[in-house]
Design a protein that fits this description.
Elements: E1 12-13, E2 15-21, H1 25-40, E3 43-45, E4 57-62, H2 69-86, E5 91-96, H3 97-102, H4 104-109, E6 115-117, H5 125-135, E7 139-141, E8 162-166, E9 168-169, H6 180-184, E10 188-189, H7 192-204, E11 209-213, H8 229-237, E12 245-249, H9 258-266, E13 273-275, H10 283-289, H11 295-308, E14 313-320, H12 327-340, E15 344-349, H13 367-390, E16 396-401, H14 409-412, E17 414-418, E18 424-428, E19 439-443, E20 446-447, E21 452-454, E22 460-462, H15 465-479, E23 484-485
Parallel strand pairs: 1-23, 2-3, 2-4, 4-5, 5-6, 6-7, 8-11, 11-12, 13-14, 14-15, 18-21
Antiparallel strand pairs: 9-10, 16-17, 16-19, 17-18, 19-22, 20-21
Helix pairs in contact: 8-9, 12-13
């Protein structure tokens, strides 16, 4: 695995690049790999604020989950077409789930695209760009199976202090609303030793928080014949010195076993946070979705997690308006939301995913009905989220300072970060210097539905190796020589870390 930490050596630069990411954390993680591959090939990231169409290479890492995903892609490609005509050396590449699904269609509808690659061969991007340039024709290469595990590829991490670690790719489930298994293939697990070696390497670079990623993360081990492999992995992460926070997403209720709950509760650096996709509270709808659990099973998991970790923040995904959903079915979802008392929920109005069984099911729900149910669900969850957050008032929490989380921090003289349970906390800026990755101890004084506020003085500030890593990266970026530019002639500092992607895309 090539490290991401510091690419400060002077190189001849081929040009600038921009990666546009859509969809779930898997795509965010893949985009970090795409950026790493391009930088290893001699490209540099286009400065923040670069005008649309001014980067020498624009890569779209697409998602196929939403019904209008293709319209969004072709709209963006259409805007770039005249810009590419004016700049003949510019290249456009399309990868990700929509590229895996549509293949040759992309070049037919947008013949100015230079490269189309799939979810299984992201490592080929630099080669395909060079081949397209030399041959002066589009290169379409879609692998049918995984060529290289993404985490073995170079990476340009967005954060110096937090990192994604992919433990598996693909999914063995057959949910009727989801096209992901068809696009990312059957589940393939990494060896535990390889995962832990990557985590240790990241910690050596200064990373203090990792998130284990999988399309169905707690099914890890099915590919290697060990049903307790995931809980063992969590416990092993607990033994890595310097690793302060471990998270994971997204699990599936079917595979969420008691040994995982025990590992979470007994491993100090595994955070008291769980994202558990519900999708629907109705047994009838869950059966139609081909989800292999029912309401009683789901609520029993929540009960067990709360018994083992009373302070755990539990979030979920919910789809409203699945084909055939009746008012009674929807009320069952509302019942589960009231019983589970999620800290937050990612709610989705059902939209047809082309190529999925649900897209052709009878009983498609009228848009106005779906909208009305969606608004009722959101209102209920907002009320619950606010009430759950109010329980945090008066608590003293260790907040890991984050970059890019608080849009108003500059005007409010605050900083922002994440509590152990991943709640967003805005707090008064301490007098001493605090960097992203450092840890500040604060007392919560106010709660809103989607954030907490600590208005008093910080109780403690702990400078960390992660903060050192952030400082080193920024200093290196500021001092980095531009090299010999063959594209845009100036290079800026890396863009700030974006806010985390939503915890799920309705696929888990």
């Amino acid at each position: 695995m090539t490290s991401s930490g510091d690419r400060s050596q002077a190189v001849d630069v081929k040009g600038t690049y921009e990666v546009r990411t859509y969809g779930c954390q898997m795509n965010v993680h893949d985009s970090e790999r795409l950026s790493g591959l391009l930088e290893d090939a001699g490209y540099v990231r286009a400065p923040e604020g670069t005008a649309e169409g001014d980067a020498d290479v624009v890569v779209f890492n697409t998602c196929a989950v939403r019904e209008n995903a293709d319209n969004k892609l072709y709209g963006n490609l259409g805007r770039l077409a005249p810009m590419k005509t004016k700049r003949p050396g510019m290249q456009i590449a399309v990868g990700g789930c929509l590229a895996q699904k549509d293949r040759d269609t992309i070049v037919k509808r947008a013949p100015w695209v230079d490269v189309v690659f799939g979810t299984h061969n992201i490592g080929k991007l630099p080669v395909l760009l060079e081949r397209a340039r030399i041959q002066e024709e589009a290169q379409v290469e879609i692998a049918e199976s995984l060529e290289a595990f993404p985490s073995t590829l170079p990476t340009r991490r967005e954060s110096a202090y937090a990192a994604w670690v992919s433990i598996s790719v693909g999914c063995n489930n057959t949910c009727t609303f989801c096209i992901v298994p068809a696009l990312r293939g059957k589940e393939k697990d990494r060896r535990p030793g390889d995962i832990l070696a990557e985590v240790e390497a990241l910690v050596a670079e200064g990373v203090s928080e990792i998130t284990l990623l999988g399309q169905n993360v707690n099914a890890y081990g099915s590919d290697i014949g060990d049903r307790e492999a995931f809980s063992k992995l969590l416990r092993a992460c607990g033994k890595i010195e310097g690793l302060e926070r471990v998270r994971f997403t997204s699990p599936h209720p079917r595979d969420f076993t008691d040994d995982v709950i025990a590992a979470m509760a007994e491993t100090p650096n595994v955070m008291p946070q769980l994202h558990m996709p519900l999708q629907s509270g109705s047994d009838t709808v869950l059966k139609a979705m081909r989800r292999s659990y029912r309401q009683e099973r789901f609520l029993s998991i929540i009960e067990k997690v709360r018994a083992a970790m009373p302070d755990a923040a539990i979030s979920t995904d919910i789809i409203v308006g699945f084909p055939g959903e009746t008012e009674e079915d929807f009320e069952q979802t509302m019942h589960v939301v009231r019983e589970a008392r999620f800290a937050n929920a990612f709610t989705f109005q059902y939209s047809k995913r082309p190529g999925t069984p649900a897209a052709t099911m009878e009983g498609q729900i009228p848009k106005e009905v779906v909208q009305a149910r969606y608004e009722r669900l959101v209102a209920l969850q907002e009320e619950i989220s606010w009430n759950e957050n109010k329980k945090q008032v008066g608590r003293v929490l260790e907040v890991m300072v984050a970059e890019g989380e608080g849009r108003k921090d500059g005007s409010t003289h605050r900083l922002s970060g994440r509590a152990p349970d991943n709640r967003l906390v805005h707090f008064t800026k301490p007098d001493e210097d605090v960097r992203p990755g450092d840890v500040v101890t604060v007392e919560i004084t106010y709660a809103a539905p989607h954030h907490l506020l600590a208005e008093g003085a910080a109780k403690a500030v702990r400078r960390t190796r992660a903060g050192d890593a952030w400082e080193k990266r920024n200093a290196a970026a500021a001092a980095k020589p531009a090299g010999v530019m063959l594209g845009i002639p100036t290079i800026g500092a890396p863009a700030p870390t974006p806010a985390p992607a939503s915890a799920g895309c309705g696929c888990d």
